[in-house]
Amino acid sequence: MHTQALVDLTPAALVELIQAKHRQLLKDLPGLLDVREQELSSAFAAAKEARSTMNEDPSEANIQAHDEREAFRRSAESRVYRLRDACANTEQSMAYWADDTEPWRELLDARDRVDAGQAPRFKSKKKNGGDTS
Amino acid sequence: MKGPSSANKAGLSEDELAALVKNITELKEQRAAVRHRRQINALAITHAKRDNRSLTLPKQLKASDDSVVREALEAKTAFLNAHAERDSISATVPIPRATIEKRLRHLLKSLTKNIGVEGVKPVEVERAAFAEFFEFQALHRRVGSLESANEAMIVARERLQQALALLNKHNRNAHREEQAIQRQLDESFKAARALRREVARANPQARPAVSVAASESLMERFRAGQSISMEEMQDMLEHSSLFKDPNPTDLTDTTEE
What we know:
The structure holds 2 protein chains of 2 kinds. Chain A has one domain (19-115). Chain A is 73% helix and 0% strand. Chain A has helices at residues 3-8, 11-56, 60-97, 109-115. Chain A starts with a helix and ends in an 18-residue tail after the last helix. By secondary structure, chain B is an all-alpha fold. Chain B has 2 domains: 4-202; 209-257, no CATH class. In chain B, 74% of the residues lie in helices and 0% in strands. In chain B, helix 1 packs parallel to helix 3, helix 1 (4-48) runs antiparallel to helix 5 and helix 4 packs antiparallel against helix 5. The longest helix of chain B is centred in the middle third of the chain and has 80 residues, at 123-202. Chain B is rod-shaped. At the A-B interface, helix 1, helix 2, helix 3 and helix 4 of A face helix 4 and helix 5 of B.
C-alpha cells in the first residue's frame, strides 16, 4: 500500500479489511482443524501402539520408535490446541469488529488527542524520552 | 583711510559669510537628521537580528515611520511567530516521518494480512494495534503540519534576511550621506574662516576692541550663568590670554594638553 493510501485509510475501511481477514480465517480454520484433529487421532493411536510394543519388547528400536511417535503426538496435540485457540480468537474478533454498535470507535480517542495537539502516548527512543520542554 | 573698493569688498565678503553661515546651519541640521536616522537604523538592526528573541520594541523604533525600518520590524515579528509555531508543533512530534510510516505499515500488516494460524491475535491485541494505527496516522498529519510550519518559517527567515540586508544598505547609504555632509561642512568652515580673516583685514575697525575690564565683566556674566552673545564670547576669548580664570571650566581653561 502506498504511503498516501496508508495515511488516508479510514477507520471503517480498516475494520472492513480486518473483517475480511477474519472471514477468510473462519472459512479456512475449521477445515484445517479437522485435518489436524484426524492427524492427532492417528498420532495418538500410533503412540499408544508403540507404547504397547515397547512394554512387550523393550528393545532399543522399539524404545526409539515409541519416542518418535510420542514426540509427533505431542506436536500434533499442540497444533490442535493452537488451532482451537485461533478459531476461538477469530470468532471473538469477528464478533467485536462486526458489531453494529461499532465499539471500535472508542479506540479513536488517542487519534483525537494527537489531532488536538497533545503528545502521543508512546515513549520516544530519544535519551530524554522525547521531552522537548 | 580705506578706499571705496575696500569697503565694497568687505561688504561683499560679509554677505558671503552670512550666506555661508546659513548654509552651515542647514548642513548641520541635515547632519543631525542623518545621524538620527542612523541611530534608528542601528537600533532596528540590533532588534531585527535573528538570534535576538526579544519581543520588546524600543520606543524609538515604535515611533519610526521609515518604511525600511518598519518592514524589518514586521519581518522580525513574522519570523518570531513562525518560529514559535514551528516549535510548538515540533514539541508534539517525537519521531520522524519515516519511522511513523514504517510503524503504520507494520500495524496494517499485523491487522489485515492473513498469514494463517500464526497471525491470529487476541482481540485485545488487535484493539491496541487499531488504536495505535490511527494515533500514528494523526501523528503523520502533524508531521505534515510541522513541515508546512517549517517552510513558513524559512520563508519568514528569508524575508527577515532581505529586510536586514536592505536596512544595512540603507544604513551604509546614510553613513556615506553623513560623510558627504561632513566634508561639505569642513569646506564651509574653512571658507568661513578665510572669509572672516578677509573681512577683518579689509575692515580692521569693524569691531571695537574690547578692554580687559570689559572682558572680565563678560566673564563675570558668564560665570553668573547669564546669556552672552556669540560676538561677546569671541571678544572674551580674544582677551583670554590677558587674564587667568581662577576657577577654570571646560570653556575657560586655556591650559594646553
